[in-house]
Structure prediction request, 334 residues.
Amino acid sequence: MKFLLGVLLAAGLLAAAPSARSQLVPGSVAMHWDEGADDCTAKPHPPIQVHPYNDRTYVLRENLCATFEAPFMYLLVGSHRALLIDTGDVADPGRMPLAQTVMGLLPGKGASKMPLIVVHTHGHLDHRAGDPQFEHLPDATVVPADLDHVRSYFHFTDWPNGVAQIDLGDRTVDVLPVPGHYPSHIAFYDRNTGLFFSGDFFLPGRLLIDNTAAAQASAKRAVDFVENRPISYVLGGHVEMNRAGETFPFGSTHHPDEHALPMTKADLLRLPAILDGFNGLYAEHDGFTIIHQPHELMALGLAAFLILVLAIMLVRWLVRRWRSIRRRRALAPA
Prediction:
């Protein structure tokens, strides 16, 4: 009987071991962000806010009154090095003390400060403008956001297929190609917390598409990746809508009753269906506004061209009619 109990106990411990190893480090999503203002000169606003998800994971945001883009950045701290995802929209450290804030969150002092890797979800300026603040810091490596550097640094040999890893020391971050919004767009999955950092590929707001086919393929690739992995939250690069699902006007520096930043695994799993029904120009589907930026610009340009042509034709018609009236008056008997 004792032998049988011992076998059962050992089997139970073995069965429980994987569960213990796979348990995610929890964190807080009780985030409270400055809503900005229509008149940002009326009162001071902090240029940057920091929310500690836990003592090794930080969510940073540039204030709406510093830049209407108000991008989010993420700092993950391992035992040997740290990872900063994106550097925001403001380059001037006097206006946006990003590097100072990040370095203050890292363990160590002076020469013993923990090494930092700076990466980007993609190469739009509002996610990399702060790079110069880090480029000359000791033990800081900045990975440029263009496709050649992304492929080289992460050793992607069959872009956009494959998954790369970043070892921070007792913390592994997976790197997943998700082009469609931007040619070198990547998402990050932190195995430690189960957080999936989606950048502008997926966020509570406008889904801006640069390449429809690439975006649809990336959505399926992302779903395949997360389907059998624990996802605590999906965290994007911006919040552009209120809690009612209405998008704020483009360029707005005031976000009252703003939608929460965290999204769910279920939200991400819906993305392929959302994009599969996209008409290639503009659509509102399942709570998201989807815009193909190049096609929209082409459509606006064509519309402007047609309006200009019509205006020229109208002016020419009016000029001819005015000349005709003058000739008739000149020929009319006195």
About this structure: Residues 1-21, 295-300 have pLDDT under 50 and may be disordered. Residues 293-331 form the longest helix (39 residues). DSSP finds seven helices and 14 strands in the chain. Residues 41 and 65 are 9 Å apart (CA to CA).
